[in-house]
Amino acid sequence: MNIREQAEEREFQYLSRYASHSRESKGRERVEEECDIRTVYQRDRDRIIHSKAFRRLKDKTQVFLAAQGDHYRTRLTHTLEVSQTARTIAKALELNEDLVEAIALGHDLGHTPFGHAGEAALNEICPEGFAHFKQSVRVVERLEKNGEGLNLTWEVRDGMLNHRTSGTPHTLEGQVVRLCDKISYIHHDMDDAQRAGIFQEDDIPITIRVTLGDSCKERLNTLIHDTIRNSYGKDKVEMTPEIAEAMRELRTLMFRSVYNNPVAKKEERKARTMLQEMYLYYSRHPEQMSREYQKLITEGENRERVVCDYISGMTDQYAMAKFKEIFIPSAWAVY
User: Which residues, in sequence order, are CB contacts of 273 under 8 Å at separation 6+?
Assistant: First the structure.
């Protein structure tokens, strides 16, 4: 047996009977020759890490728009924290850690500049709507590699598509990522909000702190351990009702105190207006988009969808630079 086949055999020996085994993947849309070293999910993880969309996450907003502080999370650091938490739980539950990692690293590839404000802007103005979880799958199926896509396995794409709260992943590994996405953003966004001075530990009701803990570290520890204890050896990944309810209350508190906070969100109206004006401009002037996006239109892709592809792929700083280039007049430079 080669190295990949040995790894696949170890999966059958050591993973849970509910785990997704690499050898039993539903496969890719385009059949490929197997790698002699890496399993299919390891290859998917590597393709995501080396993609352009993944690199751009480092300059996309998580919560605080185009934050200048060195320690605020970006969409990339959020992704890495989801991956770390998900791998911890997957390993403890004897699930396929490689599949979990690939889903986690790819789950937000389709996110817009300026976080959910950008997503809402495109969803509002595009006749076909816009959702980042669908866009993440479109990125790996159609947009990467000059229109060829990454040709990922069905299980990874399913996990990416269903990572939202209302999603229904078809693998336990996808269920792990779906849960860890919420665990991660609630806690690291709370940490950022405390750094920004708009949220304090004392703002958390005592009932939640008694159940989950008195610090971000303690609460993360509680949620992770409860998920593992309550899910081990089962065909579903979930917390106990008491802990799950406390996390829902904490999430509701975050929406009320941070995500909808007028101080934290005061620049979002500008960001939404900016992206919508750019959408209208590129819809009228698709020749001003990058060549790879013009190519999609010539190949029969809907113009409005391609404009969303182009804008959603931008980083915060690039979007602001393009808006300035299009709409802000430059001073005459000849003396």
Answer: 121
